[in-house]
Amino acid sequence: MGAALAAVYNHYLASYAPKGLTRFDAHKSSELRSIYNSMVKLNKEAPWYLPTTNQETKQYVVALKENARQLHNTIALLGGLEEGGLLSKKSAFSSNPELVTASYIGPHDSEAESPCFEIEVHALASPQQNTGLFLEDTKISFSPGTYSFDITAGDMSYEFQFTLDGTETNRQLQERIARLINNSAIGVKASLAESSSRTSLVLTSEATGIPQGKTDIFKVNDDHTSKTPGTVAYLGLDNISSKAADAVYSINGQRQSSPTNHFHIENLFEVNLKGVTSEAESVRIGLKTDIDSLTDNITQLMGGYNAFLRAAASFQNTQAKSSQLIHEFEGIASDYESSMKSSGLNLTPDGTVQVNRQLLHETAEQSPDAAQTFAFLKSFCSRLLRKSNQISLNPMQYVEKKVVAYKNPGHNFISPYNAAVYSGMMFNGYC
């Protein structure tokens, strides 16, 4: 049951608003209790209204909540949840971001100078790939019936079943199996390769690197499957054309390896390997200056603000109240327009903020106290946080809905799930 719900939730994320998770998405029980109490208080006086049945509205509400969460996390990542911590996040540099990218994950309150690292990339981590037989697009030689095969990935084994009536072609069979595998979300992706009018079914693992204690990331067979075997041999699905390999690199001359191209260095830097360095070449990573870090932080903050506004604007043609939400955010930004403009942050007609990085950098560099110069952003972020939390608690306030009845003031009862009706929208297409 848990796996089924996970698959539904993953499908919901892909369909509505796929957003990355951060450490701020994990909460203590006291924080969850506080959220629940806020919902109870919010709904105590809320009127009853008819639940929405429009699919576009459901998509809008769920996406609105997800976008509000993303804005909250952007501010949190910049230190906006801590007293005096806003925009204190340090930034990392890479001398060649096309080969190695880096971000700083160390303590932001440390006065000690962070060391620099020289990285040489000898090989990137790669996935396992199975390339099947290249077949002509002719009628299959299988008899009608139900066939199955198994894919073992990690400690889990998955069986795939399909029924043939004997009229399918080789390409139709390959496409059908590709859809089965891709819709299963088991960590293996399927695609078709073509060569001289022939097609092959290619299976590629999402994971990279050599699994600990194993030689393969996944295996395909039909030796002990429940239905008729023969698919694996016919299509050549067990043919490993490229084995998985670890990333190999050197840090300050010390050779190391990793099953992925993503790793940490001394809990200071988060590194992504993107290419192989040439002989005697290395990529230097370290911390940017405080002025450069501040410029990056402000740019990232405005990027999060702009992303939320654009997401809300994308629903203006179908959701009348999205204009109200945009107007509220524009009102918050307009209160700081003069301070923003003098710092290289310009409000545009659509409500977004255009960043002039050169002027922004010059303002920070020439200011005797950069923290004081950009102090207005603390108030700006504080208001954005309150608004994003409000939206997360009750995104239904930005939906046109029919009120059935208003509650009798002072003689009402608690309905904690009324404004949280959007939570049920996750499953409306699957239950």
Automatic annotation (TrEMBL):
Annotated GO biological process: bacterial-type flagellum-dependent cell motility; cell adhesion
UniProt entry tagged with the keyword Cell inner membrane: no
Species of provenance: Candidatus Acetatifactor stercoripullorum
Gene: fliD
Identification of the protein by name: Flagellar filament capping protein FliD
InterPro entries: FliD, FliD_C
Keywords for the protein's UniProt record, in alphabetical order: Cell projection, Cilium, Flagellum
A GO-annotated cellular component: bacterial-type flagellum filament cap
Residues covered by the Flagellar hook-associated protein 2 C-terminal domain: 244-354
